[in-house]
Specification:
- Chains A, B: Its EC number is 6.1.1.21.
- The structure is a homodimer.
- With about 450 residues, chain A is α+β, with helices and mostly antiparallel strands.
- Chain A has three domains: about 10-175 and about 315-365, BirA Bifunctional Protein, domain 2, CATH 3.30.930; about 180-310, 2-Layer Sandwich (BirA Bifunctional Protein, domain 2); about 370-455, Rossmann fold (3-Layer(aba) Sandwich).
- Chain A is built from 18 helices and 16 strands.
- Chain A has helices at about 15-35, 50-55, 60-65, 80-85, 85-95, 105-115, 160-175, 185-195, 200-210, 210-225, 230-240, 245-255, 260-280, 345-355, 375-390, 405-415, 425-430, 445-455, and strands at about 40, 45-50, 65-70, 95-100, 120-130, 145-150, 180-185, 290, 305-310, 320-325, 340-345, 370, 395, 420, 430-435, 440-445.
- In chain A, the strands form three sheets. Chain A has an eight-stranded mixed beta sheet.
- Chain A starts with 16 loop residues before the first helix and ends with a helix.
- At the A-B interface, helix 1, strand 1, strand 2, strand 3 and helix 4 of A face helix 1, strand 1, strand 2, strand 3 and helix 4 of B.
Chain lengths: ~450, ~450
């Protein structure tokens, strides 16, 4: 064996066939839902100019960008002084491109570049890897897929309702039954900031509230005090974060509280309208929980915000999104409102493994393996094999006349449900033996009969 | 509009919805064929350690690798002396990873790393982008997809025959009718080197012959002379490169010539066996042309080599592959024979555009757009829309009550085949107007009837 066994970079993964089949099940399911709601595919380059990427994800994000060394003599424009000024300075000289960090900024860049040609409202889905030079850890990778859908160029709240419908449908198709779609609205949080006497400070409020799950109310309050929120404000905030009752109870209570907050009332109106649309569309809204503690941190959201939790599984949110008023402003195109959703495929994978939800059959897998006894059986099987394939069956002949046990092992390891054997007896009678690998049952059949059994 | 309109790196592309739908048609078609023949998906990381990538593609290939700057203070291990020694020296200090250059080396690396767990013969397909810092030109990109299938761990020639079958099936499904699969065998080229008196020089011979298409016989001969081939050898080579007749004629002629070349005879035997398998499998072999001038340059092939040309279209080969005896030797694992095929998706795309072969309908596209007249029509349409979606139809409601012309334009630009209109008359009668966008025909129907028309 290899002396120096090769490896892969930390935080990256190979996806072998077994894992790929499962991942593809998730991707295809989500994709089918996106398409059903009118979203169409987009792909952008893995590399973007650094001018597109930097300054979009905060200082921390800039640190986490993977940068690509310029081709050829990348030092041609650098002097020793540049070297001596340190790596941060040198970076700009030797690297002009980086790997995409998410799918949102490239999407915004695409919309701005193609604005005149696009068909608005523009509904796109995008399923591609992104890269972050994060410290690798359990569940945290340096390369991972994002799975986004966004519609831009409309502020219709039908889009929000359709996002709820898509989430319901995607999880139902994946077999995940017990989940909660947490829904809030940034305008409601803005209203809360107003009524607790900290008008205009909703961003800091969101960043603090966002940690509620992780650090608890006491620490959140401490952080708010540190950020200069008044004791009275922190005290006034608590009932909001502890509010109980169903969605409509909460809306009613807040309506009372927001008498003097126009923005807060607007947020409630939007939420109410989303619930109205859901009812009209007969979409199951029992999965939706209006959650005042949902804040989604330092993001650019301005209206509805979403997050999906799978209940009774210890894992963070598996999906999230929201409405933004100004996706493309950073590239100089203002007033482009939209709303988006993103599914966390790695976490959904882990949930489905834990709950054993992956289907055992798959169109990705070979359905029938023909055993290769010898030259004669090979000659007999090959035309039958092609006949099966022409009927749309994924099938293969073991390419060598290896030991039968080895061939059966091959079928088992590959999860192939049927094995077909043709020794001299079968050949003499123009038959085959069809073996069901799960039940162990064997049948002596004509090739056509075997095909019929398999096709069912 | 934007002051500084953002751009994308040279040699990279955005794929908008219209192009993606067509590209996906190609990918899905090829994937379905790969699966039918028992190949299973693999994905490897975009980044590989440079130790895995360098030295595998020749000096030129090493130059074309995209290298990723180490994260954090990438200069921490470098001194001014390192800087002064120039970029080639510094690279090793500041960059440990690169973007994959092809899918073959990562596949070999994967096989070596997972050798003990794999199910041999291991059949994998892999469809992922690769990156090359090449000078961008028409049809030459810095990021492009490869679409490979390989089987390793067997030297059965059934695999070669199945590759021919897969190529036939893929092109048939794509609608490309007039194509030629050029087939040769490296052992035959080795035999030719022997019989023209230049034994052991088949690599140089292959590199020269490979240019025949581009530079013509005269220049090939000049190159061979320059490389030190004798005048007699060059003269003896000509009849091989000009050989006419059908595949079996050529095999018969060569059999005569190869009386004293064991390797040459072995190559002929292999070719004959592939043709025998094709006949047995009832695979159309009229697409296959035994072509002695097919060499496939400086690659690691040792047996069969393939290349596919679309006839009557000015474009290079659209697919290629071959058998190699030692895929993983470079990583210390010897004796891993295999055979592979790769489809050139960008060229296939261009061919299909030129020949107008893309289907006009697609499951990726929205089938029905509901027009949004006003609040009342919206309320009426939304439950019908959901009913359509539950029946598996990709459908959408225009989210705003915009001008009808704008909404119809939206449907046209998105190639949506049906538009559904419900004004006050339709609503009063619990009907809809179904408009076929291609024929212009309009029908007044119940929602259920409309669904039936669309589903057909």
């Amino acid at each position: 064996m290899a002396k120096n066994k090769p490896g892969i970079p930390r935080g990256t993964r190979d996806f072998g066939p077994e894992v790929m089949v499962k991942r593809n099940f998730i991707f295809e399911t989500i994709k089918s839902v996106y398409k059903k709601y009118g979203f169409q595919p987009l792909e952008t380059p893995s590399m973007e100019n650094l001018s597109v990427l930097t300054g979009k994800y905060g200082d921390e994000g800039d640190q986490l960008l993977f940068r690509i060394l310029n081709s050829g003599d990348f030092l041609s424009k650098s002097q020793v002084e540049d070297f001596e000024k340190g790596y941060k300075h040198l970076t700009g000289n030797i690297s002009g491109k980086g790997l995409r960090y998410d799918l949102t900024v490239p999407f915004a860049r695409y919309v701005v570049m193609n604005w005149g040609q696009l068909n608005f409202p523009f509904k796109r889905y995008q399923i591609q890897p992104v890269w972050r030079a994060d410290r690798p850890a359990k569940g945290r990778y340096r390369e991972f897929y994002q799975c986004d859908a966004d519609v831009v160029g409309t502020d219709s709240l039908i889009c929000e309702a359709e996002i709820v419908a898509m989430i319901n449908e995607a999880f139902e198709k994946l077999g995940i039954e017990d989940f909660t779609i947490k829904l809030n609205n940034r305008k409601v949080l803005e209203g809360i900031a107003e009524v607790i006497g900290e008008q205009g400070r909703q961003t800091e409020l969101c960043v603090a509230i966002d940690k509620l799950d992780k650090i608890g109310l006491e620490k959140v309050n401490e952080e708010l005090i540190q950020r200069g929120f008044s004791q009275a404000a922190v005290k006034a905030l608590a009932p909001f974060l502890n509010m109980s009752g169903n969605n409509f109870d909460k809306l009613a209570i807040l309506k009372e509280q927001f008498q003097n907050s126009e923005t807060g009332m607007q947020g409630l109106k939007e939420l109410q309208e989303v619930f109205d649309y859901l009812e009209l569309m007969k979409v199951n809204a029992t999965t939706v929980e209006f959650d005042l503690t949902l804040a989604r941190g330092l993001t650019y959201y301005t209206g509805a915000i979403f997050e999906v939790k799978v209940n009774n599984v210890q894992i963070g949110s598996v999906s999230g999104g929201g409405r933004y008023d100004n996706l493309t402003g950073v590239f100089g195109l203002d007033g482009m409102s939209g709303v988006g959703i993103s599914f966390g495929v790695d976490r959904i994978y882990d949930v489905m493994e834990e709950l054993q939800l992956f289907p055992s059959d798959s169109s990705e897998i070979t359905t029938a393996l023909f055993i290769n006894f010898d030259r004669e059986s090979e000659r007999y099987c090959l035309p039958v094999l092609q006949q099966f394939r022409q009927a749309g069956i994924n099938a293969e002949l073991y390419p060598d006349a290896a030991k039968i046990k080895k061939q059966m092992n091959y079928a088992n390891k590959k999860n192939i449900p049927y094995v077909i054997l043709a020794g001299s007896n079968e050949i003499a009678n123009r038959q085959v033996t069809l073996k069901n690998m799960q039940s162990g049952e064997q049948q002596l059949l004509t090739p056509e009969e075997a095909l019929e059994v398999i096709t069912k």
